[in-house]
Write a structure and sequence with these properties.
mainly alpha, about 325 residues, 2 domains
Length: about 325
């Protein structure tokens, strides 16, 4: 199952419909006074749609990625026109101003930080002024990673927005060309936290998770360890060739897609598909886990792809994870 023009048109059309949809919107805001009670677009001139800030950011990543991959689609022209109007220096300045507010140090940490870096990297791949406009915001979040990682004593292994492995995976992809010192810091943190992990029990999924704690960690170690990954993985999931722990090979059941938290489980299925594909590629075709990993990726994709659109609680964000699952970073 690979990304095709039908996927691209469906995902981009849905995402464009809600990137500028101001309500409903979940603000991440500390009120410092009554003057702060104002509409989302006044706090976030660019990222005020798609229900919340981070979903808006990765929605932009998604539509720019699809416009690059399928430039001749009609919806890609709509994307470029919207980007020309929105990804401009004066609007970026408004987003930067929000970061200077009191009590903003943990705003969107680390999930939104990482997605903003991914968006900037994608914007750099276009012949357009969007990346130059976004660069000050990207550098601001990179600096936050520089300040945060040295004081982060313990990893965050949860399956939601706070998962540190997922954030480092995206941030490292940006940093390896733009900020080698940050890439080095990320590698050191990943090795300190995860290099000695053995026999992962994979007690997941939790009822509202969209990331696999086990597989996201493994995915990060694919890029951090390189040639040493296979040795690490064989100790981390020693029974994977026998599809154990079984929960990692079994798509999650989503009982109510109108429930915003339970709908996270569709994202879990998509993110697992992405990570299983990365693991299989890193292990190579001759490794005994690779067939099981590839089959698990397909099962998870099949379980989630039909539900990317249909209910706003999933539709405002799932297409980005579908794109990861189908096409990678």
């Amino acid at each position: 199952m690979e990304l095709n023009p039908d996927h691209a048109a469906r995902f981009a059309t849905a995402t464009l419909s809600h990137l500028g949809r101001e309500y409903p919107y979940k603000m991440a805001l500390v009120l410092n006074g009554p003057e702060d009670a104002k509409p989302p677009r006044e706090h976030h001139p660019i990222f005020h749609g798609s229900f919340d800030w981070h979903s808006c950011v990765h929605g932009w990543w998604q539509i720019l990625r699809l416009a690059r991959r399928f430039p001749d689609l009609a919806v890609s022209a709509d994307t470029r026109a919207r980007a020309d109007a929105m990804l401009v220096p004066e609007k970026v300045a408004g987003e930067l101003a929000f970061l200077d507010r009191p009590y903003s140090a943990t705003f969107e940490r680390p999930y939104g930080w990482a997605w903003l870096l991914a968006l900037h990297k994608e914007a750099e791949r276009h012949d357009a002024p969007w990346a130059a406009a976004l660069e000050p915001l990207a550098l601001a979040f990179a600096q936050r990673f520089h300040a945060f990682l040295p004081k982060m004593t313990y990893p965050l292994r949860v399956g939601t927005h706070f998962n540190i492995a997922f954030a480092l995976l995206l941030a490292r992809d940006w940093a390896r060309m733009r900020d080698p010192a940050l890439a080095t810091l990320i590698d050191a943190a990943a090795k300190a936290w995860f290099a000695d992990d053995r026999d992962c029990q994979a007690w997941e999924p939790g009822g509202d998770e969209f990331l696999s704690s086990a597989l996201t960690e493994a995915h990060l170690m694919v890029v951090v360890l390189g040639e040493d990954f296979t040795r690490w993985f064989d100790a981390f999931l020693p029974r994977a060739a026998h599809e154990q722990p079984a929960t990692l090979f079994t798509p999650a059941t989503v009982s109510d897609r109108s429930d915003g938290k339970i709908a996270h489980l569709d994202g879990l299925n998509l993110s697992r598909a992405w990570s299983w594909r990365a693991v299989a590629a890193a292990l190579g075709p001759d490794h005994p886990v690779s067939p099981a990993a590839a089959a698990a990726a397909q099962r998870h994709l099949a379980a989630a792809l039909p539900h990317v659109t249909g209910d706003y609680m999933g539709e405002h964000w799932l297409a980005s994870f579908a794109l990861l699952a189908l096409d990678g970073l």
